Amino acid sequence: MARAQKSKETAIFESATVLAGLVIFLWLFSSNFRPWVQLLMAFFVVILLVWLVYNVIKQESPSPTFRTFSHNPYQTEEPIGKQRPTVFIEELKKVRRTPEPAISEKLRKIDWFQFEKLIELIYQRRGFKVKRLGGANADGGVDLVVELPAERFVVQCKHWRMWKVGVRDIREFLGTLTDSQIPNGIFITLRGYTREAKQLADRHGIKILNESDIIQMLEKSGLIYSQEISRLLSDERKLCPKCEKEMVLRTNRLKGNKFWSCSNFPRCRSNLNCEA
After folding, report:
1. Which domain holds residue 22?
2. Residue 139: is its pLDDT beyond 60?
3. What is the pLDDT of residue 192?
4. Contact 177, 154 (CB under 8 A)
5. Is a pLDDT exceeding 50 seen at residue 95?
6. Are the beta carbons of 197 and 211 closer than 8 angstroms?
């Protein structure tokens, strides 16, 4: 291939030499042809410049059969077919985006107040009228009252990351239903429940929902990819459960422990533990 290319360039050079000699001969011995000789020389110069520019660009352009990776300055160029698979794996890792956190991970990161508002949005999307009694108010164990013209029930929300719902929690919720004079109740938690708690709840017609049930409710209601839920789950602010103003992290001067305090202080004196 190299020999053929060299012979081709030699033939072009010889032809150009003969053409240049002919031009010089006509210029010296034939005055009638001098105007045509000038045009021919100008054309020859243009062709020569184009040829030179083409060769410069061709030398600077990388060969399509080779690829150089800039991540390793000591790596030599290799044909694509002979490159190690690990090179391509490393390059693919660089362009991969950070995976979006799973919905379950987002549910665990929000606080209990956001959790209540999330459950409220789910029931509202399903057409229920929701009255929120939780937050910083004394709710008597009732976080949400959910109702339709032909249906009414109480919802208790527990955003517990470590503890499961136990028998004691179900018994307290039974007392709440008796006090509110609403016979139907739903206990919603993240961590799940013990077997004894589930048996007691079933005997009294109480539904216990866990994390997988919440995700299923989000999917059925069409909220799982909505902007409203996305904003709620990604909001890293701590909002006051009483007035919903943004809270600020403060330090107790006497004990040295940190706590969340409402930014609307002293009008709102609501505060939460730092872990809440």
Report:
1. 2-60
2. no
3. 86
4. yes
5. no
6. no
Nearest to 216 by CA among 239, 188, 179: 188
- For residue 275, the number of C-alpha atoms closer than 13 Å in the C-beta half-sphere is 5
Which tokens belong to 145?
Answer: 């009252």
Do 148 and 246 sit in the same domain of this protein? no
Strand partners of residue 208: 187
| 176 and 198, same domain (yes or no) | yes
Asked whether residue 110 falls in the same domain as residue 23, the answer is no
pTM: 0.56
The per-residue pLDDT for range 206-254, each reduced to its tens digit, is 999 999 999 999 998 888 888 888 888 888 788 887 777 887 888 887 7
Pair 113, 85 in one domain: no
* Element spanning 231, H or E: helix 227-234
Rounded to whole angstroms, the Cα distance separating 111 from 117 reads 10
Q: Pull the structure tokens for residue 221.
A: 């209601």
Given the structure tokens 């399903």, which residue do they identify?
126
Same domain, 110 and 226: yes
Is there a single domain that holds both residue 85 and residue 162? no
3-state DSSP call for residue 276?
Answer: coil
Kind and range of the H or E run holding 186: strand 185-189
User: Total structural domains in the chain?
Assistant: 4
